[in-house]
C-alpha cells in the first residue's frame, strides 16, 4: 500500500491517505514534544519503538474482541489503519494518581484509585484541551448519550485488558489516553495509538517511570524506558 497525500501532521505522527479510501497509513515520528510544544526533541528510534508497542497492544485488544482501527504493520514506523471519523475527545483512564489529576485534586502522586477514573478532554489546541464533563460534551454535540456510554464502557474494557497484561510484565498501568472514532457503518472503534507517549507506566517493584514522563521531567534514559517496556511486553505476548 502506497502513501498518497499527507492528511495531517501532529507532534509525534503523520497520517496519509492511500489509494483505498477506507484505509490510511499512520507514520510514527522520532519527534517528542511536551508542555504544548514548548519542549521539543528528536529521540532516535522512538518511531520504531512506538510502532511496535502500539501494534502489540492493538493485537492484544483485537484478540479480546475489542475493535480497533489497526489493520497491519507496514514497516518499522508505519501501520495501516482504518479510516474513521474521530471524536474530538481525549479519553483518559486512570488507575493511580499522577499528572494533572494530582494537580487538580491535591491527591498525592502514586495514590491507588479504588475504581478507575475516566476523564474527557476536548481536543482543541485553541482552548488548550480543557477537561469536559458529560453535559459539556452534550452541549457541544461532540458525542451523543449512547455514543458516550459506549466510549466509557470500551475504555473500561481496554483498561481491564491492558492492566492485567501489563501486570504480568511487571508494569503498573498508571493512566493512559485513548481516542475513538466512528466507521462509515457507525461502529465505534479504538483509534490513534497506545504507546509510552500516551501512557504512564511504572515498574511494579521499584516504581521507576518507564514512559514519556522521563522526557517531560528531564530524567534521562527516555528510550531505555521505552525499550524496557517493549522487551517485557514482547515476552508476555
Ligand atoms: O497530563 P495528564 O495527567 O492529564 O495525562 C494523563 C494521561 O494521558 C498520561 O498518560 C498522558 O501521557 C496522556 N496524555 C496524552 N496526550 C495528551 C494528554 C495526556 O497522551 N494530550
Automatic annotation (TrEMBL):
SUPFAM superfamilies: SAICAR synthase-like. Gene3D superfamilies: ATP-grasp fold, B domain (3.30.470.20), Phosphorylase Kinase, domain 1 (3.30.200.20). It is an enzyme of class 6 (ligase). It catalyses: 5-amino-1-(5-phospho-D-ribosyl)imidazole-4-carboxylate + L-aspartate + ATP = (2S)-2-[5-amino-1-(5-phospho-beta-D-ribosyl)imidazole-4-carboxamido]succinate + ADP + phosphate + 2 H(+). Its EC number is 6.3.2.6. Keywords: ATP-binding, Ligase, Nucleotide-binding, Purine biosynthesis. InterPro entries: SAICAR_synt/ADE2_N, SAICAR_synt_PurC, SAICAR_synth, SAICAR_synthetase, SAICAR_synthetase_CS. GO terms for molecular function: ATP binding; phosphoribosylaminoimidazolesuccinocarboxamide synthase activity. PROSITE patterns: SAICAR_SYNTHETASE_1, SAICAR_SYNTHETASE_2. Belongs to the SAICAR synthetase family. This is Phosphoribosylaminoimidazole-succinocarboxamide synthase. It comes from Halarsenatibacter silvermanii. The gene is purC.
